[in-house]
Design brief:
The chain is mainly beta. The chain is about 5% helix and about 60% strand. It has a five-stranded antiparallel beta sheet with strand order 1-2-3-4-5. The model has no long low-confidence stretch (mean pLDDT about 90). It is elongated and about 55 Å long. It starts with 6 loop residues before the first strand and ends with a strand.
Amino acid sequence: DTGISNTTYYNLGFDVTPVKDLKASVDGYILRASKTDVFGPGVSKSIGWELDAKVAYNIAKNLTYEVDAGYLHAGDFYKNLLNTPGNDIVKNPLVLMHQITLSF
């Protein structure tokens, strides 16, 4: 019931290095529940779709600045399990993270 143990996903993505110290990537996912009969009748297998993007810049040999973004468009699977009449609690999350990494 937890984690990604009941999840099938399809991924399409690409990576690009436009200049020596800059890398970028974009990934798209279609997420499906492998089994829904354990949750009851009428539960959709459509978990939704996700789009992730990353840009990383090498400031120095061992110092990198990175920005990651992710968006999940929740499908009917979550709406079937979590929503009750008059209570629309399923949202489409958006995440933005930045980090500086020093490796040695």
